[in-house]
Amino acid sequence: MSENNWNEIIGGFIAIGGSLFLVLGSIGLVRMPDAYNRIQAGTKASTLGTILSLTGIIFIVPDWFGKLLLLILFVLITNPVSSHVLARAAYYTKVPLTGITKVDKLKETLEVEESRKAHLKKVRIQKEEE
Amino acid sequence: MANTLIFIAISITLLSLLISLYRFIAGPEKANRIIAFDVMSVSTIALIAFISVLNKRIIYLDVALIYGILGFIGVLIIARYIEKGL
């Protein structure tokens, strides 16, 4: 019985640690200067916080291992997907970056792509004229 | 003992939901609001799991799973809608 009790206490402290990570993520969501930084802070911290909380519940109630593992895998798979889609939507709708941003590799890549497309179009028009 | 610890964890999670609700209301663009909604829906999975431990009902975990699926699909659809329209 006492071993069971220790398991419950350890699980409870792990769950409290997970919820502290959730609080840290939402504080980052408020304090960060930029939509992209907010995606970074919010989704990463909330993924870790949720996984830690569910792990703590596994320690408390070991009979629910299967369903909790399913939830953990679900969060682990879907959260990066949604954050990627959000970042993509934010970039293509031209949400502004902060003023202190130094490197924007995607902008350079898009410019190179644009100039290559324009060049191909010019070549095709020249061929049709011939 | 475990119930007390779970109760503390529930109150900390509710605090985090409240803090991210500020960004949901005050976010300057549509994108910021959806980021806050995503974080809130993932935190709510943990909250429902805590409540299921307090009430000792495994069926609430199914509720959490369905809530997570619906939140994920909602975030995907709204992000696509912002990007190129429906």
Describe the structure.
- The complex is a heterodimer of chains A (130) and B (86).
- Chain A is mainly alpha-helical.
- Chain A has one domain.
- Helices cover 84% and strands 0% of the residues of chain A.
- Chain B has one domain (2-84).
- Chain B is flat and about 50 Å long.
- Chains A and B meet through helix 1, helix 2 and helix 3 of A and helix 1, helix 2 and helix 3 of B.
Concise structural overview:
By secondary structure, chain A is mostly helical.
Keywords:
heterodimer, A: about 130 residues, mainly alpha, B: about 90 residues, about 90% helix
Enumerate the spans of chain B where pLDDT stays under 50 for 5 or more consecutive residues. Answer: none
Q: How many individual helices of chain B?
A: 3
Overall structural class of chain B, as computed from helix and strand content, comes to mainly alpha
* Quantity of strands of chain B, as a count: 0
| Alpha carbon gyration radius of chain B | 15 Å
Largest sheet of chain B: none
**Beta-strand percentage of chain B?**
under 5%
Structural class of chain A: mainly alpha
Mean pLDDT of chain B: 89
Strand content of chain A: under 5%
> Main beta sheet of chain A, described?
none
